[in-house]
Amino acid sequence: MGLRVLAAMSGGVDSAVAAARIAEAGHDVTGVHLALSANPQSHRTGARGCCTIEDSRDARRAADVIGIPFYIWDMAERFQRDVIEDFVAEYAAGRTPNPCLRCNEKIKFAAVLDRALALGFDAVATGHHARLVDGVLSRSVDPAKDQSYVLGVLTREQLSHAIFPLGDSTKAEVREEAARRGLTVADKPDSHDICFIADGDTRRFLADRLGSAEGPIVDETGAVVGSHQGAHGFTVGQRKGLRIDRPAPDGRPRYVLSIEPVSNTITVGPRAALEVTTITCGAPVWNGPRAHDDLTVQLRAHGEVYGCRFEELDGGLTVELDRPATGVAAGQAAVLYSGPTVIGSATIVSAA
Ligand SMILES: Nc1ncnc2c1ncn2[C@@H]1O[C@H](COP(=O)(O)OP(=O)(O)OP(=O)(O)O)[C@@H](O)[C@H]1O
To answer: Does the domain formed by 4-187 have CATH 3.40.50.620?
Structure first.
């Protein structure tokens, strides 16, 4: 007998095809669009933002074509609290959060999954590009679209109720299939990085919420070399947008090495000073097999992959890279893989 599946439908191509595949496989599927924005009209800026009225209409149309019941669930308040406020608070604390990862952890596979289970559903299906084989998360066959990183924070329990029907397909195949199935969203562009910042201007979004406060930019010796309007506008490894009055003696570009929110100080230095090999993380979530062969770690979404070994220490996790990485920011996740399989993850606390 088929499962009762709740298909999370964003109004985009991927989730429409994911829902269609699950329905075709004989499961009893209901589509749900999550209204995540408190003011859906305000996001209509041309770029595809989060949860516009148009997105919910596209999702409904896709559900009609597939022939499944469809609902809209208002999760705006949860999203505001667990994703947007968390995002702002993390930047205010000098860290660099990944809101997609937080949304998967707190909204799609927590708030939505809880409600789905309470209503008698067995699983939540999404259009994420990742594979799930017997509850074990693995990379998508399309490396350019692989989203296993932003799902790597999910627990075994969360994964046991997840279905990702697209992991064996490339994005091109999904688009083609959408067109063939008459899902009118086939040509819709991919959503951009942060769905609740429709114009993509993260710094302005943060400045609107955290205000601006002038602070010093110092070099590695502590000498003041410039100023900034708020430490929250920066991330480790950033080069652009630094107002430096005293260039480095060697004339080389300088990068953000660290962010100190309490004293509102940004420390900059040469690229070489960004290189780290030891990553210290918080408590790990182990969600895959305890494999130790072909170990790699990914330190940001779409980031490079490093060979590594790791050790659990005092409730945290220390990861040693086999070559230096740059731009490793506290607040991002370190997702550990054995080959293509996710074995666990932990939040980065510091790197050296
Ligand atoms: N507002 C929403 N309502 C319901 N489900 C959503 C919503 N936003 C995202 N999702 C689910 O999360 C998945 C991943 O979201 P992401 O923003 O990465 O989408 P995407 O890769 O652009 O896919 P899509 O083409 O389906 O929008 C989607 O495929 C969908 O299943």
So the answer is: yes
Residues marked as catalytic: 103, 195
Atom of ligand 1 nearest to the CA of 126: 31
> What residue's CA is closest to ligand 1, atom 17?
191
Strands of the chain, DSSP E: 4-8, 28-35, 70-74, 123-125, 130-133, 136-139, 162-163, 215-218, 224-228, 255-260, 265-269, 276-281, 285-286, 295-298, 305-313, 316-325, 333-338, 341-351
ipTM over 0.95: yes
Structural domain 212-271, CATH architecture: Roll (2.30)
pLDDT in tens, 117-159: 999 999 999 999 999 998 899 999 999 999 999 999 999 999 9
CB atoms within 10 A of CB 221: 8
The average pLDDT across 81-99 equals: 96
Of 85, 70, 30, 49, the C-alpha closest to 206 is: 85
List the binding residues. Answer: 8-15, 34, 127
Superfamily of domain 275-351 in CATH is: Translation factors (2.40.30.10)
Q: Report the chain's C-alpha Rg in angstroms.
A: 21
Which of 15, 105, 113, 158 is the best mutation target for the ligand 1 pocket, counting ligand atoms within 8 Å of the beta carbon and taking the most?
15
Binding-site residue positions for ATP: 8-15, 34, 127
Every domain of the chain and the residues it spans: 4-187, 212-271, 275-351
Copy the structure tokens of residue 310: 């790791």
